[in-house]
Amino acid sequence: xxxxxxxxxxxxxxxxxxxxxxxxxxxxxxxxxxxxxxxxxxxxxxxxxxxxxxxxxxxxxxxxxxxxxxxxxxxxxxxxxxxxxxxxxxxxxxxxxxxxxxxxxxxxxxxxxxxxxxxxxxxxxxxxxxxxxxxxxxxxxxxxxxxxxxxxxxxxxxxxxxxxxxxxxxxxxxxxxxxxxxxxxxxxxxxxxxxxxxxxxxxxxxxxxxxxxxxxxxxxxxxxxxxxxxxxxxxxxxxxxxxxx
Length: 245
Prior knowledge:
With about 240 residues, the protein is mainly β. The chain contains four helices and 15 strands. The strands form four sheets. Strands 11, 12, 13, 14 and 15 form a five-stranded antiparallel sheet that branches. A four-stranded antiparallel sheet has the order 1-2-3-4, with no helix packed on it. It has a four-stranded antiparallel sheet with strand order 5-6-7-8, with no helix packed on it.
């Protein structure tokens, strides 16, 4: 089991699966994916009876993690972010549809939540920055690898992991740690320096995302640090966690 979300107006809860702790606790091994030791299903539960009523099987190699319904009081559909694939799966009441990460999907026009919105892109570090350990051979969206991120004079190690959006939708916060053993494997600098929290300003009128250059929470400077920050929450929730009961 990994994540879950619920839609009480339709008497359902959906949950995802990651892997047993013995699989992921010592780091990521691609052979474990081939062996089927990582999850690949979404489970639909009867909210009142606490019973599984439907199982949605993802495509090979996709590990469904964070899952949410649309921000709509009557929604019967939502999104699930999938590890290893850099995409988001769109789930409906009776099916799952592959959706490239954060892009509109014209082939699902009747149910698409993004029928005419542009796509915005922002890099907060990551493994494909220029001078890093990964060399990008071809990218249809980028002319070159992005530059390393520097905020308030600090080069940011790691990449974005968990996010939280303010109630007015104008401030998006991101932390940079996933799981300590995986951080050590993919971003060793993160273990030495600790993680950070960054702020992205969202233009809710004209559209667009922009990093706030004056906001930085450096968990590497904690008294018992360096610390690795993962989940973040607003008191009472953010604008994506309202369940509309």
